[in-house]
Amino acid sequence: MLTADAPMQAVPERISDAEAELIVQAQEEEKEKEKDQRQADMLGEEIVETKVVFQGDQKIIFNRVSSQRNAFMEECQPSQSEGREVRRDAAIESKRLASMELVPICLGGMVTEEGVSDLWWSLGGERYRIVTNANFSYFGVIGEIEDGDTRYSYFSVVSPAPYQGQQDALPYVLADFTPGALEYFVIEEGSDPDAYEAIEAMLRYYAENQEKMRIAYENGQKLQKARRAYLEANPPKKRDIIVNYTKD
Q: 139: how many CB neighbours lie within 10 A of its CB?
């Protein structure tokens, strides 16, 4: 069992359904503007020769363009000083990360409506399984957590328990956990005592960031719902595929 008592940290602002709809609308409209601009930039280059090919109802335009780079491309290039700063920061971060031990973990599991997570993973050919009162939906599918000198890289396929019977099959429910404490119970135990280090690092992170993670997750769910509805009502503009190339 692991119990954590961590201080509350600053949390992101919670968004409403209406705010999610406005955010998605602005994002999707900006995407379309960027695509329009990119298309205009490509068609605005010095075109030497054009060939059009159809794949079904999809139009593909091949433009042979002058080898001279246009002003738009040159303006997009960062200055030398900016480039050096970015490379130096990247090198420092890369060196720091390389000095840490990298431990991967691949999790499967499900989460009940109460937020109880049933998790399993394999290590050294052995299966491990726990039940915890931490809602692992908040972690997302792919991520990395630093804990001391170790980086835990996780791939988590955790989904909601699809039906009540499956939830009822769990050996523990929320009432079995200590109120106000973060805990886990071992259901299947292998022979490696270090097999739980990644889980415990994730639980420590969860304890420190639970409220922030919860709101970020709920905001993400609202944005996903709003985006599905927006795209259903406003399908993306059908566009030709434009390929610009040179022979140099």
A: 20
In the DSSP assignment, the letter for residue 137 is G
CB contact at 8 A, 105 and 152: yes
> What is the pTM assigned to this prediction?
0.73
Per-residue pLDDT tens digits for 128-152: 999 999 999 999 899 998 888 888 9
**C-alpha to C-alpha distances, 234 to 14, 26, 28, 29, 241, nearest whole angstrom:** 26, 13, 9, 10, 20
| Sign of CA pseudo-dihedral 7, 215, 136, 106 | negative
Given a contact cutoff of 8 angstroms between Cβ atoms, the answer to whether 136 and 119 are in contact is: yes
Which string of DSSP letters, residue by residue, matches 80-95? HHHHHHHHHHHHHHHH
C-alpha closest to that of 113 among 149, 129, 137 = 137
Structure-block tokens of residue 14: 């919670």
